[in-house]
Amino acid sequence: MPTALLVLFLLVVVFVVVMLSKTVKIVPQARAAVVERFGKYKATLPAGLNILVPFMDKLRYLIDLREQVVSFPPQPVITEDNLVVSIDTVIYFQVTDPVAATYEIANYIQAIEQLTMTTLRNIVGGMDLEETLTSRDSINSGLRGVLDEATGKWGIRVNRVELKGIDPPPSIKDSMEKQMRADREKRAVILTAEGQRQAAILTAEGSKQSQILNAEGDRESQILRAQADREASILRAQGEGQAIQTVFQAIHDGQPDQSLLAYQYLQMMPKIAEGSANKVWVIPSEITKALEGLGSSIHEIAGIPKDATPRTRVDMGPTEPQLPRSSGDNELSATSKAVQDAIAAAESASQTRATPVDPAPSEGTAGEPPTA
């Protein structure tokens, strides 16, 4: 008896568990359950705990209400210029009506795939290859409009359509690569030419500025060099003038006689005979008379004064070289010159009165005037 009761109890427990499983249904969040009663649509259960009538109500489909992503394999599509390209698409859709998605279409994913293929061939067939490669947005918009309109009655909303890849034939790829390489080389050549042009312009401008600066520098250096040469010539001329005056004054101060001058003539004779081309040379008559004057001081050489004392004292001039003064010192220089001329005239007059003037020699060398 206890065994029969135990079996009965176990049967009751199993029956209760089965009844609970048939009665209580838990639907997850973002899901929708389609319930049928005797094979006919009864209701759509929301998310959460739901109670069904056991053995009468049946949970047929559990629909995912979240946005879903489906990637379709590449499909060959012929463009307007008769080129076959391979295009793969990605569809983003969402079930908005679980009842329509369950009863209006048997397999909505397969239906969306086939509709995408046909629509894509229709859109791309009116474009050439270049337009296809550069018109992804227009293709996406056209696909989305057609799919959304067709899938509306299926309780599906197409949110987005994306072209994941457009692959032209290998030969077309090679041609496109060559064209792209040629375009890049063309741009590189253009940029190189522009760079060389700019470099040539900058080089020419730099050369121009350099030549201008060099010319200005040469002009200033020539001006300074000319001024230096002018001042050097003035100083050299003043120095030579003072040297001549100094020698002339020293000769007069030394009072040379006939013997000294004759000796000077003798010293000049070796210099006259110098040189390999001097085969024949003529002795001036003044040297002969000078030789005669060495033996006797009675005779005098024509053209040489007996008394070597100068009649007039030679002004030695300033000891320092005088450069031309600026225009601002004209008045002062004129006054100083007048004073110096007055002093020189007074000294000359006093020396003339102090020294008697010798008469000119009665005899002289033919062809030479008597020396003062």
Distance between the termini: 191 Å
Q: What is the second-level CATH architecture of the largest domain?
A: 2-Layer Sandwich
The CATH superfamily of the largest domain is known as Band 7 domain
Instruction: Please state the overall shape, judged from the principal axes of the Cα atoms.
Output: rod-shaped
Count helical runs.
Answer: 9
What is the CATH topology of the largest domain?
Tetrahydropterin Synthase, Chain A
Count of separate structural domains: 4
Task: Report the CATH C-level class of the largest domain.
Answer: Alpha Beta
- Helical residue percent band: 40-55%
> What's the alpha carbon Rg, rounded to whole Å?
67 Å
Largest sheet entry: 4 strands, antiparallel
